[in-house]
Amino acid sequence: MSANLISGAEIQSRRILVIDDEQANVLLLRSLLEREGYREITCLTDPTKALAAYVDLDPDLVLLDLMMPEMDGFQLLEAFARHDRPDEFRPVLVLTADTTLPARRRALALGAKDFVSKPFDVIEIGLRIANLLETRILYERLRISERSGQACTGHNAPEI
Amino acid sequence: MTTARRARSLTRFWSDRPLAFKGLVVVALPLAVLLVALVSLYLASMAEARAEADVRRAFAIQRDAYQAHAMLAEAAAGVRGYVLTGEERFLQSYAQAEAQLPRIMDRLDTTIRDPIVRSQFEELRRLSVRKRDGLAQIVLLVSDAAAPRTDDDALTAALTANKLVLDRMRQQIEDLQQRESVLLNQRMSRVEAVRDRFLAVTAVSAVVGVLGSLAAVYLFSTGIVRRVRMLERNAGKLARAEPLADLPGEADELGRLARRLTRASALLRAREHALRESEERFRLVVEQVRDYGIFALDIDGTVASWNLGAERIKGWTSTEILGQHFSRFYPPETRDDVPQKMLAQARQAGTAEDEGWRLRKDGSRFWANVVITALRDGEGNLRGFAKVTRDISERRRSEEALRLAREEAIAANLAKSAFLSRTSHELRTPMSAILGFGQLLELDEEQFAEQHRSAIGQIMKAGRHLLALINDLLDISSIEAGGAELALEPIEMGALLEEVYGLAAPIVAAAGLRFDLAPCDQLATALADRRRVIQVILNLVANAAKYHRTGTRVRLSCRTIAGAVRVEVEDDGAGIRPSAVPRLFTAFDRLDQEDRARVEGTGLGLALSKSLVESMNGAIGHEAAKPGARFWFTLPCADATARDPATDAAKFPGEPFACPQT
Q: Which domains does chain B have, with CATH numbers?
């Protein structure tokens, strides 16, 4: 159904930021994403540079590892939330090998939109990424239509 | 002996009389003596008067007798003169005598009492009559002779006779007077005697009266006063609670008072004895208590009593501490305000409790539990405070140790959780790369040659097995570390088994077996973690299906036994070799090589199930069925006390919470 609304090409054109301190995982995710047809992929293994990249890149989706040295995923989730506007829908998919319940709860509470534990199913994660991007695109469209609607009513308002 | 006894009984009789009687006697005795004296005085005066009257009468008789005599003598002389002279004037005295003599005689007649005198008087009267007759004859003769003098002889005879009569009269009067004077003397002496007796009686009466009164008053007063003094002494002894002196048991008021006093003393002593005994008991109990420092404070907080426990705990002996203020038990930082606050609170609320540091005599500190209780008398007036101190340093130390141990346990638990989380991450992260790339290769497998495709398949298989192992291992570790979060809740086992039946049915069906679910006891309710129970049952059912070579069915059932719910998974396969049974629940001890080749599994399933069941306070086991194997596990019943009634009531309306016993 969503396929009817949003083309694969539009989804694949979106910017994805991958943050994981493990080189092999970054490589795996990049391979996976490229295989799915994504072109705008930025990968980071140094979490301390993640916030700057997040601000510069303005990604549509973040794939975030939780357990990293120096700065963990929770801190980054908080930093992203502080940076974004409240009405922004910029999904973060948490990928973690820590499957304990507190970790899951904490990540979701801090604004993560989805949670996948490692090791993950390659096909499943591809689908989840596509779903999250689709949601973001739909959200953007809603915002745009709202703005134009507001503009129209704003235009007509004085005449009433 | 008899006299002494009589005197004693008399004394006794006297003592027994009431005080009013004794007083009456004491007052009446001198009065009676006085009365007797008065009566005797009266009698004496009467006697004297009588005697004096007699004397007067005697004088009167003497006088009258003399007068009669004198009158007759004068008359005789007159008559003689007349005879000689014939002159009428000589007859004057005769006439006088004629006129007065009868009167005198009459007077004498009435006056004379004495019989001798009366006989003399009678004679005298006869003589006086004869004298007068004689004189009258002479006068007659003379007067006749004056005219014709007839008979001188007759006259002479008459004169002579007259003279004889007169002499006899004179003699008679003399006798009479003599007799009277004898009587007079007698009477006079009688008067003297009466007067003497009167004096004697008066003197004796006075002496007896005074002495008797004095004696009575002395006896009365000494007796009464002596006994009152004794009573007073006894009263004093009573007041000083000394034993009373024995008093003779007289029946009068004082005797009764003494007896009452004695009885009161006995009662008082009995009561005092009982009180002292109870006090002594209490004192001994308090003094000998060693684990509690028990002491009294006066209203200001000064120590007023001290027991052995206080000495043992605080180090001061009672002589050292009595009279000191109790604030010295407090360390300097609390000394200024806490003691006063405690007293104020005890005064207001009746009691005050505190825990804190206190000082011993040697300056060392101990952690004390202190209770101060206000002591009030019957009227509610504050009399002081009782203070009970316990040295709970030891308890505090153990509490502290317990707290530290608990903190350490929590810290260790956190460390363990962190370790597990870390381990999970460290093991899963490479697995992620291996399985991820493997899957990518699988997806593009048409690009590879057959032998490579097979290699990719082996990598994936081994990788998945390794991941399952890691998962089970981490599961067991976290359970055994106590880190697994168990959400214990009452679970209706009937419903749960139906749910599991639905989940496990495809596994059993895949093995080509029949899957039976026995109807469950409706009331079977276990206290357990729902997710974990499902995990265990699935594990057992999957085992039954996997290792089942010869049978036809798997059966799932549940029932309640004493205090527990028992779940059984039974099959009718070949069963388990007896030699393998002891190692069934040991990790990595898969049954045999044949199975290992044929069946996928980590070898941790039963070990994990055992850990899970035991973590929920249950038990797990195996028994041989004929044919086949039966695995069972039990879970504790959810009884009323272990549940939250509000949520339970909502969950299981109308159902009893008690675990049914079979």
A: 10-221 (1.20.120.1730), 289-391 (3.30.450.20), 394-485 (1.10.287), 487-651 (3.30.565.10)
Among B552, B544, B495, smallest CA distance to B519 is for B495
When CB atoms are compared, the residue of B421, B431, B463 closest to A100 is B421
B434 touches chain A (CB under 8 A): yes
Sort residue B241 into left (φ over 0), alpha (ψ -120 to 50) or beta: left
Average pLDDT over residues B636-640: 74
Locate the chain B residue with the closest alpha carbon to A21: B429
Distance CA B60, CA B410 (A): 156
Contact state of B428 with A103 under an 8 Å Cβ cutoff = no
Angle formed by the axes of helices A122-156 and B393-443, to 10°? 90
Alpha carbon B340 to its chain centroid, in Å, reads 34
- The confidence score (pLDDT) of residue B642 equals 44
Helix (H) or strand (E) holding B395: helix B393-443
CATH number of the domain within which A31 lies:
3.40.50.2300
User: B9-28, pLDDT tens digit by residue?
Assistant: 887 787 777 878 878 877 78
CA distance A136 to chain B (A): 26
Put simply, whether B477 touches A (Cβ < 8 Å) is no
Domain span at A103: 2-159
Q: Please, which pLDDT band fits residue B601 given cuts at 50, 70 and 90?
A: low
Local confidence band at B591 (pLDDT 50, 70, 90 cut-offs): low
- Paired with B489 in beta bridges are B528
pLDDT at position B644:
44
Rounded average pLDDT over A74-100: 87
Query: Which residues of B fall within a CB distance of 8 Å from A94?
Result: none
B437 CA to chain A: closest CA distance, Å?
6
Q: What are the pLDDT digits (tens) for B316-336?
A: 888 888 888 888 889 988 888
Looking at residue B521, the DSSP 8-state letter turns out to be P
> Is the Cβ of B393 closer than 8 Å to some Cβ of chain A?
no
B124 half-sphere exposure, CB direction, 13 A CA radius: 31
For chain B positions 141-160, those within 8 Å of chain A (CB to CB) are none
Average pLDDT on B206-212 reads: 79
Q: Which of B424, B426, B436 sits opposite A120 (nearest CB)?
A: B436
> Could you say which DSSP state residue B89 is in?
G
Any idea of the CA torsion for B447, B449, B455, B457, to the nearest 10 degrees?
Answer: 50
Strand order in the sheet with A15-19: A40-44, A15-19, A61-65, A92-96, A114-117
Q: How many domains is chain A partitioned into structurally?
A: 1
Task: Say yes or no to pLDDT of B619 above 60.
Answer: yes
Mark yes or no for CB contact B437/A28 under 8 Å.
Answer: yes
Cβ <8 Å between A118 and B432: yes
Distance between A101 CA and the closest CA of chain B, angstroms: 9
Q: Shortest Cα distance from B483 to chain A (angstroms)?
A: 10
Q: Which two tokens stand for residue A2?
A: 């969503």
Q: Which residue of A has its CA nearest to B419?
A: A98
ipTM (interface predicted TM): 0.82
- CA–CA distance, B398 with B400 (Å, rounded to integer): 5
d(C-alpha B428, C-alpha A66), whole Å: 13
Q: SS3 for B527-573, per residue?
A: EEEHHHHHHHHHHHHHHHHHCCCCCCEEEEEEEEECCEEEEEEEECC
For residue B417, list chain A residues with Cβ-Cβ distance below 8 A: 100
Query: What residues of B are in contact with residue A45 (Cβ under 8 Å)?
Result: none
Of residues B169, B165, B155, B53, the one with CA closest to residue B113: B53
pLDDT of B155 strictly over 90: no
Of A28, A35, A96, the CB nearest to B433: A28
Mean pLDDT to the nearest integer, B505-516: 86
